[in-house]
C-alpha cells in the first residue's frame, strides 16, 4: 500500500511522559526509532510530576534497562540528548505557552496523549489555543470512550481542534507483525481467497488467553472489564482483518474502508450471544470494588450479515487466569457432503490456524493416509511457517507511521462507532456473571454458547 506527499513530523511531544505507558512502551519504541531509523527530532516530555529534565532522562534509561534491551550505547545517548521536559498542569494555559516556546520553529509536531481519556479534550483545546496544534498530528490511546455515546462525544470534541486525517487512534494490536501476517497471507496467495467464504468455511474462532490476573491494575480493570478492554477493540479488529474484502485501491485508506465495511455488517450482540465470567479471587485484588460484577472473561457468538459470511458462526473469547498465555485464530473448513472412504471424520479436521502470540505460526489442518492396506487416515497439521516473535515492537512501528502521516494501522471514528455498536447492548451487567476457577478455560457456560459450531480449540503454550 502506498501513501505519498506526507511531511514527517519535526518534533514529538509526549504528554504523560512520567507515566507507566511511557515507561513500558514509548521509551523503548523511541529508542528503536533512534537506533533503526535515525530519529533526530526534539522529544518533549510533558507531565505534572515536579521533575527536572535530568530525572526524565534517568527515567528513560531505567525504562530501557527493564524493557529494552538497550544494547546500543550510542543510540541510547542520542535518545537522551533529544529529550526536553516541561513540568506543568494540563489545565494551565502557561504549560502550553511553555510548550510552544520549546517547539521553536517546528511546523509539523506530533502530540502523543499518553494520559487518561478524561484529559483528551482539555489538552486538545489548549494545544489549539496556544497554536501548538497548528499543522500538528494527535495520537490518542484507547479506550476511545466508555460506550457508543461517549465515543461519539469524544470524536465530536476532537474534531473541533484536529481534522480526522490528523487524529491517530492507536490500537497496538494492529501494529503486531502476526496480525499483519493475516492480511498478507490472505491476499498474496491466490489459493485462499476462493475458499474464504460461507460456501467453504464452517466456523471461525478467535481466542486471546492470559494465564495471569489483573495484578496491580485492579482499579483500572474494575472500571473496564474484558469486553471494553480487549473484545471491543483488539478482537473485533482481528475479526475485521480476517474477514474483510480485498482493498480496491493502493492507498492506505482502502484497507480501513474494508475494515469499516465489515464491522458495519456485524450484527449487534444480544444477551443470548454473550457469556461473562469472573475468576475466583478477583474481588480480593486491591482496587477492586467489593461485590464487583466486572467480567474477567468473555465469550461471544457473532454473525456477519453479508453475502460472503452470512450464516457462518464466529466465536470469540478472551480472559484472564486461563491455562496459557496465547492468542490464536482458527478458520475451520466444511467437510465434503460425503466421505469418500466411509470414515467417521471429525468436523474439525480441516482448518487454517494463525498463531498471533507469544510466537508466530500459520498451520493448515489436513488428513493423511495411515500406513497399511486400509484407506483410513489421521489428522495432521502442516506448518506453513513458524517464527519467533518479531523484534520490532508494535509501538515502534506505529510511532514511525504516525510521524510519517501513514494511517493504515490506526483506526477511524467510523470504525470506532461500528465497534461500539456491536457491543453496546451487552455492556455492564446486561448478562449474568459466572464464576470460574483459576486455570480453567472460563465458565462451563462458554461451552454451551459455542454449541454445534464447537468445540473450542484451546491454544497450547507453544505453537508446536
Instruction: Using the 3D structure, state the CATH architecture of the largest domain.
Output: 2-Layer Sandwich
CATH top level label of the largest domain = Alpha Beta
Q: How many angstroms separate the termini?
A: 33 Å
Amount of helix: 25-40%
Shape: globular
Profile the largest sheet.
9 strands, mixed
Number of DSSP helices?
A: 13
N-to-C SSE series? EHEHHEHEHEHEHEHHHEEEEEEEHHEH
Gyration radius over CA? 24 Å
**Order of the strands making up the biggest sheet:** 14-13-12-11-7-10-9-8-15
Question: Which spans of ≥5 residues are poorly predicted at pLDDT below 50?
Answer: 1-5
Q: Beta fraction of the residues?
A: 15-25%
According to DSSP, the number of beta strands is 15
CATH topology of the largest domain, which one? Dihydrodipicolinate Reductase, domain 2
Class of secondary structure makeup: alpha/beta
The CATH H-level superfamily of the largest domain is Dihydrodipicolinate Reductase, domain 2
Count of separate structural domains: 2
Overall pLDDT, averaged?
91
Account of the protein in words:
33% of the residues lie in helices and 21% in strands. The protein is an alpha/beta fold. It has two domains: 11-141, Rossmann fold (3-Layer(aba) Sandwich), CATH 3.40.50; 174-390 and 412-421 and 444-453, Dihydrodipicolinate Reductase, domain 2 (2-Layer Sandwich), CATH 3.30.360.10. Helix 1 (20-37) crosses helix 11, helix 6 (148-159) runs antiparallel to helix 12 and helix 9 (225-243) crosses helix 10. Residues 1-5 have low confidence and may be disordered.
Amino acid at each position: 500500500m502506498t501513501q505519498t506527499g506526507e511531511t514527517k513530523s519535526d518534533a514529538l511531544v509526549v504528554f504523560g511522559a512520567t507515566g507507566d505507558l511511557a515507561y513500558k512502551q514509548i521509551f523503548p519504541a523511541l529508542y528503536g526509532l533512534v537506533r533503526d531509523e535515525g530519529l533526530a527530532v526534539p522529544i518533549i516530555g510533558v507531565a505534572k510530576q515536579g521533575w527536572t529534565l535530568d530525572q526524565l532522562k534517568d527515567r528513560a534509561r531505567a525504562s530501557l534497562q527493564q524493557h529494552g534491551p538497550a544494547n546500543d550505547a550510542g543510540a541510547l545517548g542520542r535518545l537522551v540528548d533529544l529529550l526536553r521536559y516541561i513540568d506543568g498542569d494540563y489545565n494551565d494555559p502557561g504549560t502550553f505557552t511553555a510548550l510552544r516556546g520549546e517547539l521553536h520553529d517546528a511546523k509539523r509536531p506530533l502530540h502523543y496523549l499518553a494520559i487518561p481519556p478524561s484529559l483528551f479534550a482539555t489538552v486538545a483545546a489548549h494545544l489549539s489555543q496556544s497554536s501548538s496544534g497548528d499543522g500538528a498530528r494527535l495520537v490518542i490511546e484507547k479506550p476511545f470512550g466508555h460506550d457508543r455515546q461517549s465515543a461519539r462525544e469524544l470524536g465530536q470534541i476532537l474534531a473541533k481542534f484536529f481534522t480526522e486525517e490528523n487524529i491517530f487512534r492507536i490500537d497496538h494490536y494492529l501494529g503486531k507483525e502476526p496480525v499483519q501476517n493475516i492480511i498478507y497471507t490472505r491476499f498474496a496467495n491466490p489459493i485462499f481467497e476462493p475458499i474464504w467464504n460461507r460456501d467453504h468455511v464452517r466456523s471461525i474462532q478467535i481466542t486471546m488467553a492470559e494465564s495471569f490476573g489483573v495484578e496491580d491494575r485492579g482499579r483500572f480493570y474494575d472500571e473496564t472489564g474484558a469486553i471494553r478492554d480487549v473484545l471491543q477493540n483488539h478482537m473485533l479488529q482481528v475479526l475485521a482483518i480476517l474477514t474483510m474484502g480485498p482493498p480496491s485501491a493502493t492507498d492506505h485508506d482502502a484497507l480501513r474502508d474494508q475494515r469499516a465495511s465489515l464491522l458495519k455488517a456485524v450484527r449487534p450482540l444480544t444477551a443470548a450471544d454473550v457469556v461473562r465470567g469472573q475468576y475466583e479471587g478477583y474481588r480480593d485484588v486491591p482496587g477492586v470494588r467489593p461485590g464487583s460484577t466486572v467480567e474477567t472473561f468473555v465469550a461471544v457468538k457473532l454473525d456477519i450479515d453479508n453475502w460472503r459470511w452470512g450464516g457462518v458462526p464466529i466465536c470469540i473469547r478472551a480472559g484472564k487466569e486461563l491455562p496459557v498465555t496465547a492468542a490464536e485464530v482458527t478458520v475451520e473448513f466444511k467437510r465434503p457432503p460425503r466421505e469418500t472412504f466411509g470414515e467417521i471424520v471429525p468436523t474439525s479436521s480441516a482448518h487454517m490456524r494463525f498463531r498471533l502470540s507469544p510466537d508466530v505460526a500459520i498451520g493448515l489442518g489436513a488428513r493423511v493416509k495411515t500406513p497399511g492396506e486400509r484407506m483410513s487416515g489421521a489428522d495432521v497439521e502442516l506448518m506453513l511457517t513458524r517464527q519467533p516473535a518479531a523484534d520490532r515492537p508494535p509501538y515502534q512501528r506505529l510511532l514511525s507511521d504516525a510521524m510519517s502521516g501513514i494511517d493504515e494501522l490506526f483506526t477511524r471514528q467510523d470504525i470506532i462507532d461500528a465497534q461500539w455498536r456491536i457491543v453496546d447492548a451487552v455492556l455492564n451487567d446486561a448478562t449474568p456473571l459466572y464464576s470460574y476457577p483459576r486455570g480453567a478455560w472460563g465458565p462451563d457456560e462458554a461451552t454451551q454458547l459455542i454449541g454445534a459450531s464447537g468445540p473450542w480449540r484451546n491454544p497450547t503454550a507453544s505453537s508446536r
